[in-house]
Amino acid sequence: MSAAEVGAMDQEIEANPESHPEWEEVVLSDAYTQLMTDDAGGYVIATAPGPLVIRRSGADDQHFARSLADWVWDRVAAFGGRDPRPVRREDESSASTSDPLDPHPDVLAELDRLNDACRAAPGDTDPQVELWTAVTALDHWVIINRGTPEAPRPYSLAGQPGAMLCVYSSATRAKAAAYASGLVPDGDPVPLLAVPLPAALDWVMSFGEHGVVGVTIDHPRLGAWCPLANLPRLRQLREQ
Question: Do 179 and 232 sit in the same domain of this protein?
Answer without folding.
Answer: yes
